[in-house]
Structures are given as C-alpha cells and as structure tokens.
Amino acid sequence: MPLRQAHKRSLSEDVFEQLLVEIAGGGMPAGSEIPSERELAAVFAVNRHVVREAVKRLEQAGLVKGAQGGRTKVVDYRQSAGLDVLALLAEHARPGAETLPLLTAALEMRAGIGADVARLCAERDPGAGPELLAIAERLAELHAHELLVADQLFWQRILDGAGNLAYQLAFNSLIRVVHARRDLSVGWLEAELRRSEHRRPIAAAIGAGDPRAAATATRLALSPDAEAGL
Questions:
Q1: Most CB within 10 Å of its CB: which of 47, 58, 78, 202?
Q2: What residues have CB less than 8 Å from 100, skipping those under 6 apart?
Q3: Inter-residue contact 38 to 25 (CB < 8 Å)
Q4: CATH code matching the domain that covers 86-228, chosen among 1.20.120, 1.25.40, 3.40.50, 3.55.50
Q5: Structure pTM?
C-alpha cells in the first residue's frame, strides 16, 4: 500500500499507524531499511520531529531497530516484540481477513492461560465464588456489546484472586485485541456463553475451592467455538 500524506489529529499516530500496517503486511519485510527521516517527512508532509516520534514508537514496540550511523531496519517482530504488538496489530489492521487471525490467536492464548488462572483463583481465593456466580447470572441476561464488559469483569475478578501479575498483563493485551473488533467478538462470545452455561461451572468450582474442577470447567468453556467461525 503506498504511503500517503498524514491527516489525523495526531500526526505521529498517523505516521506510526501507516508504517505499522506496512511492516505487518510485508510491505517493509524484516531486514529491509525504512526510508530516512527526510524521505518519510516528505512523503507524509510532516516535519522530521513527527517522523522521529513515530519511528521511536516502532522501535519501542520491537518492530524496527536503529543502527548508529546507518538507517533504521525492520526486524522480525515475531522474534523481538511483546504481546502488546498483537493488540497494536488488531487495532490498526484493515477490516476483514487481516483481523481474523489476530482474534483467533488471542482466543487460543486465552484458552491456554485461562485454565491456570482459574486454578490459581480456586487455590488462593475461593471466596470469589459468590461474586463470580452473581456476574455469571448477569451474563445469562445480557445481550450484544454489554456481554464484553460483563465478561471482562468476570475474568478480572478471577485474575484478582489468582494474584499473578504476568497473567494480568497478558489479559490486558488480549482484551485490547478482542475489543478492537467488537463486530466479530460479540458473535463468538454469545455462542460461547450459551454453550458454557454462562460461566456458572467456573464460578461454582472456584467457590468450592476445587482447583482441578476450576481448570477443567475453564478449558471446556474456552475451547474453540466452531459455531462462531473462529
């Protein structure tokens, strides 16, 4: 995709987004040099400070790396970046086929860590059970976009009980991916909640202080849902 003049309220955000899309889409492959500050400033019709700010953000995200005395090169972000890049890609991806693999990856990871988070909560904070059950009852009554917020509260309570910072930070990034495309997220969540009794078995297992049952219920609830097409 050809780069174009920046026009958003935040010029550095516009430049960052366009470069991110180019890198993620293969227009600037790993190992290639990005254009110089002067060249990018001319393409985007901005000053070099704006370009420098955008490129610095790319470097902080692990997408490019500057070389002293040389041009900045694109790196393989799959080997150098953190989980936040998944959220950035989802937020800036073009609607359609680019977004679905990102959402699928987030859901697969959620399923992988969700069982352990529930296990830890059952071990460390079984008193969370009644509160989780109350949220589960609400989930059975809500529709559409309200579900995303309520389900986020459910998992946040489990994370609080688990007391694991690494899982919490991973959750933050996964939520950004899910919320980036609510038009896709709501459909699979509605189907998943119906199929898993709206999280009630998870809440009951945690309330009973049964780590094994909590993990099993979570694995069943978060397994891929073919009905949603993900």
A1: 202
A2: 184, 230
A3: no
A4: 1.20.120
A5: 0.76
